[in-house]
Amino acid sequence: MNNLRSRESVKFFGSPVEHENAELLLRTKTDIDNSISKILKLVKNKNRSAEDGSPKHSRKETQLVGLIEDLHNQHQSLYALYDRVTEEFGKVISRRRNKRTSDSSSDSDSEYFSSEEVDGNKRRSEKEHYNVSHYNTPKHEPYTTELEEQLTLLVKEMENLNQKKGNLELEVESQTHEVKQLSAKNTVLHDQIMDLELKLKEENGVVSDLQAKLINNENQAKSNVANFMQKLDFVENQNKELEAQMERKGEETSQLVVQIENLNENLAETRSVEENMKEEKERFLARMKDLELELEARSTEKNELEEKLSNTSYEIKQLIDENKTLQDRNRELRTSLTKKGEEISSFLREHENNKNGASMEALALKAKVNAMRLELDTLQEQKNKLEQQNERSQKEHAESLAKMETLNANLSDQEKTIERMCEENKQAKTISSKLMSNQRLAERKMEELAEKFRKKMEDNIRLLHQRLHVAEQVNNENKNSCKMTKQRYEEENKVLGEKVATYEEELRALKEDADPTPSQVTLYFPNEFELVGLIELDLKVEEHKEYVMTRVSKMMREVDFAKDWVNKRNGEVRELKDNVDNLKDSLNKKEEQEVLLREKVWNLEAKVSKEGGEKLNLTKAVSQLEKKVAKLEKNMKEKDEELVSLGEKKREAIRQLCILVDFHRDRCNYLKDVVTKSRRVKNKT
Questions:
Q1: InterPro entries, from UniProt (predicted)?
Q2: Alpha-carbon distance 21 to 82, whole Å?
Q3: For residues 675 and 546, what is the distance between their CA atoms, to the nearest angstrom?
Q4: How many Å from the N-terminal Cα to the C-terminal Cα in the chain?
């Protein structure tokens, strides 16, 4: 309606200057209306924020001050324009008053219309009268009808102009009334501007305090984040130390388990060795019985051989005596033969001397000689037989002596083997005593290691509980501080969000209501920069809050992980304690069994000490032990290789986990960047 009135008032002015002045009036009026509506909105928002108790930013106040200054400038320009229009209007009226003529109809019309309209109507009527008088001449009679039609149209237009004139007068009156209202509003707005300037100063102080508080909060948040990072680094170092300690403990437990397994294997080996020794002792006892039987048989054979030797020696003595008697007899026969030969030779000589006389005696002597020769032959045969018998007896005696020597050598060898077996038995006793002492030392070492391990585990568990308690306290403090900072940041974010919402509403209103004039562009350009700065500050605060929350959540996850890890380690330590207790019980049982076995072994050693022959068994046992030791060394090497491979696998798994963690961390950072960019785009839109 105001625009219609202003347009009709524009039609009322005839000259181009009046038209430009009307356009300026219309433009200034719309600017004043827009600025007044904006000021009213800002005042309403300020009242709402004052009722809510939320802190205000300096940007709204500067915007309000700018709008008020703009309104003041527009008001001054309106006054100047009004003065200029009134001057031009007075000049036009004075010119038209000089030209107008006195007429009765004009007096009646001047009572109803204004002076400007009267002058315009007069000029129109004079023109019409001149045209009518001009066209009523005889020269232009064909055009009279057209002129009459034009006159009727002009009359109608005149009536329409009169109506428009009335409307314009009403509009001028309404505009004058509006100008008075605007002047009253202007005074009220001046008063409000003064009040707003005072409030602006107060709010500037509040905003400066809030900025100082915000800077202090940011510094405090940075210091808290630095403290949290230091605490987190300290907790990470503690976790690393605990992991290293637990790894060392795990290695110690694995070593103890390996030692216990080795001891169990040694016990099993000693049991197997004892069983083998039992079997070997039984075999040795059977062998000793066999040897005793052989010794008895050899002793009987020796006795028989001695009897045979004694018999043979007696027979040899008899044969020697017979040989001596035969040799004596042979000698006697030889002497007798020599005597008889001499007698025969003497007899032959005598016979030769007395051939003829002694033929009968010679025959008789020949017969005697032949008989003597036969006797000599028989005696020679007996002698040969006796020599042969003597040689056979000597051979048998030599054989029996050789047998005796072999028997004596066998007996000496058996005695030596018995002595050697006794010595080996003594050595086995010493070795068994050494093994027993080594086993006792191993048991003592096991007990000492178990005691040390138990003490270390108790100390470590105590330290872990203390560190867990300290970590829980630090965690609770961090949680409380994080909650406080989170609440504070949430409150600040709420306030900043409300500010941003109000600023966005104001921006929308400003963009919707404001015309793209250079003055308004220059007016709102810095405010838009301030809004962008506030949006960037809000984004920075949100990013900082998200960073702090991510760090705090990460620290909480790490603390929970450390708790779970410590609980797992405590469970493993309990299991190890149970295993140690079970091993102790099994060791006690094994000690009892070993005591029984030792008693049995002592009894067996008392039996075996008389016999000997354990060197072979011990050498076998030693060879078996060496083989087992070699096997154990191979197993240890294989286990070491398996441990090395497991360590490499663990390192590979840790490396892959680190790669996954880095990947997820990069992905989270990328998603955060995408979210922040999308937020910035949304905030810009």
A1: NAB
A2: 9
A3: 12
A4: 35
Distance, in Å, from the CA atom of 244 to the CA atom of 221, rounded to the nearest integer, reads 33
Q: Which of 181, 190, 205 is nearest to 68 (CA)?
A: 190
Cβ(274)–Cβ(597) below 8 Å: yes
User: What is the reported pTM?
Assistant: 0.22
Instruction: Report, in angstroms and rounded to the nearest whole number, the Rg of the chain calculated over CA atoms.
Output: 74
Rounded to the nearest 10°, the torsion over CA 392, 394, 399, 405 is 170
Q: Distance between CA 120 and CA 109 in Å, rounded?
A: 12
Rounded Cα gap, residues 319 and 560, in angstroms = 116
Q: Give the pLDDT confidence of 167-192 residue by residue, as tens digits.
A: 756 765 776 677 677 777 777 777 77
Give yes or no for a contact between 389 and 319, defined as CB atoms under 8 angstroms apart: yes
Closest CA to 121 of 108, 133, 134, 132: 108
Return the C-alpha torsion angle 382, 385, 387, 392, nearest 10: -160
C-alpha 458, offset from chain centre: 26
Which of 219, 225, 222 shows the shortest CA–CA distance to 555? 225
pLDDT single digits (tens) 333-371: 667 667 766 766 665 666 566 555 545 655 666 676 667
DSSP character for 55?
Answer: P
